Amino acid sequence: MSNYIRAFSQDDIGIIQLDRPEVLNALNREMVDEIVAQLESFDQNNAIRVMIIKGNEKAFAAGADIEEMVHSTPLSLEMVNPFAVWDRISLIKKPIIAVVNGFALGGGFELALHCDLIVAAEDAKFGFPEVKLGVMPGAGGTQFLTKAMGPRKALEFIWLGEPMPAKIAYQFGIVNRLVASELVEEEAMRLAYQLALQPPISLRLIKEAVHAAVDLSLQDGKNLERKNFYIAFASEDQKEGMQAFTEKRPPTFRGM
Ligand code: CO8
Any catalytic annotation for residue 107? Predict the structure, then answer.
């Protein structure tokens, strides 16, 4: 039973709708627990090939729940260990697409950055306003943004805490697709269906190799890629893909 999200599927797409509109989907700990548990459930569900996380028209999520954090102390944070659950998102094997309309601020931006792909509205509002609260990003924001934009641009945005126009996020490769706000969901679903037709085992092996490239040396990354390339040859989908090519017909990938 979830209090802060709704989860459902459309064909083989698993959809998580953030559902706390009265506070612009501010993320309290229970809500993050629910999101991650649902991602893990979709990840284990053979009927699901791709996942989507979306908010509503006004907000993807306007950050961590400030009300919940206001009385935190260093020791309460140490004991609660609120970021352990965020780390579990990195263990999800299937593609995750964030659909961003409206605000994606602070922890909301970090949630989107934990997803593999981001489809955003042209007028979406990204940003890290934590500095204005006397703190800083805590769920990976400084790391994700620096890897995407380089330190100078990252410092400028995180130091000033000013909104980042979606167009800038797009130019730096943070956002994959930028469309009019009324078309965001449609575009994300189109992308999800496109991915759902791809061989699922290839997708997960590619996901692991690409994310590893961010941290590994070139040679270590190439070694990992090679192992994953070999593993792909254990799949039925490799046989189907190559056979379909020789028979000049479209392949049907079954995820085996
Ligand atoms: N937390 C709690 N409540 C929020 C939050 C939030 N982050 N954002 C909005 N709300 C609430 C407002 O208090 C308001 O409630 P009420 O109606 O009871 O007064 C309601 O949502 C609607 O908001 P506004 O009336 O303010 O709507 P506006 O359209 O005027 O403004 C803004 C929208 C600009 C987004 C504004 O609400 C705002 O500045 N929100 C705070 C944004 C922010 O600072 N985010 C960063 C939070 S800190 C963080 O994310 C740290 C991440 C670390 C990881 C977390 C791990 C747990």
Answer: yes
CATH topology of domain 5-196: 2-enoyl-CoA Hydratase; Chain A, domain 1 (3.90.226)
Report the C-alpha gap between 119 and 141 in whole angstroms.
18
At 26, is the secondary structure helix, strand, or coil?
A: coil
Whether complex ipTM tops 0.90: yes
Nearest CA residue ID for atom 9, ligand 1 = 23
Instruction: For ligand 1, pick from 24, 56, 80, 160 the residue to mutate: most ligand atoms within 8 Å of CB.
Output: 24
Residue 138, SS3? Answer: coil
> Which atom of ligand 1 is found nearest the CA of 139?
54
pTM value surpassing 0.95: yes
Residue of 34, 130, 187, 225 with catalytic role: 130
Does domain 200-246 match CATH 1.10.12? Answer: yes
Each residue's pLDDT tens digit, 184-218:
999 999 999 999 999 999 999 999 999 999 999 99
